[in-house]
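**Entry details**
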Amino acid sequence: MAEIVNKVKQSKLETVDLEKIVSGFDLYEFDLKDFLFQGLILKEKDFREKMDAHDWKKYDGAYLTVFCSTDAIIPTWAFMLVTQYAATFAVDILYGTRREAEIQIFKDKIEAVNWSEFDGKFVLLKGCSKIKLTPEIYMHATKLILPHVKKLMYGEACSNVPVYRK
């Protein structure tokens, strides 16, 4: 009986799993409506008192995204004040919805990769993941890795789509 040979393992192909690169962080949402009078009106004195009373320590080591889910008119300084309070604890403070913040965090983590380690190599950007990676994330990774690779593919080792060849 012939031995089964794993040709994928023997190939020069290097698999990059973006899910492993971008996962592993806590993200909290900070909705300003909870700090407004009737969820709509910012009263400076009340707002500042609520900021002072808020438990900022719960964001320690996590990301925080700040937004307002109502149509309230929020002055810029209110977002700045939240940032000032959270900056001591949060890894980063972002503006926008949870999804917008996740995309920015994913991009930041992808930018932190040393893509030069793939110089002259055949690389596969893994296509399946448990978390939702948008085309925007794959485009960003492609932009960063392209100058380094000899060949870039997308998908799985057994079924991939060639994207680039030097």
Observations:
- The radius of gyration is 22 Å.
- The first strand starts at residue 13 and ends at 16.
